[in-house]
Amino acid sequence: MPVKLHNVRKFLWLALLLCSAFAAWSWFRPYAWKVDPAARCKIVGVEVKPDHAYFWVTAHLKMNPGEEHDLRKPVLLVTASGIELEPADTTFGGTGKAGTTDIWLKFWLESRQIADSLTLRINDGELSVKHHQGVPPAPAYFVTHRW
Q: Is 8 domain-assigned?
């Protein structure tokens, strides 16, 4: 059965357009669709690294334009069972003119704590870090809260 080069070319262009649309959707998709404006920031991504029976969870946050992080208010990672964890390490990024533009929060979690959903309490709001149940594949970097 002969294949016309013209038909193959159309199929390849269609495949290229579909792949490009999927890549653009994946690139511009937010971490979570509903972000609490009282948090003054949004999560960009979360990195999970195993360490024996524990996990290091690092959340990368981007500050909303014109907003400042309130250093007087505690930052807590809350598990589904209500356990509140303070960050083991906090790193701020930015410039003198722009102020703080990025925050990295690092948490030390047990296996049973990371198996549930996780919520970050920051400033006056809450952000969903992990929505699904179960221990994630690690090491991994997540760009959505559905892990």
A: no
In single-letter form, the type of residue at position 18 comes to L
CATH number, residue 97: 2.60.40.10
Ordered DSSP codes for 15-80: HHHHHHHHHHHHHH--S-SS--GGG-EEEEEEEEEEETTEEEEEEEEEEPTT----TTS--EEEET
- Rounded to whole angstroms, what are the CA distances from 12 to 3, 4, 24, 25? 14, 13, 18, 20
Taking the model in full, what pTM does it have? 0.81
What is the Cα–Cα distance from 21 to 57, expressed in whole angstroms? 31
Interval 96-137: pLDDT, tens: 887 899 999 999 999 899 998 999 999 999 999 998 888 888
Containing domain of residue 121, as a range?
37-142
In a domain, 54, yes or no: yes
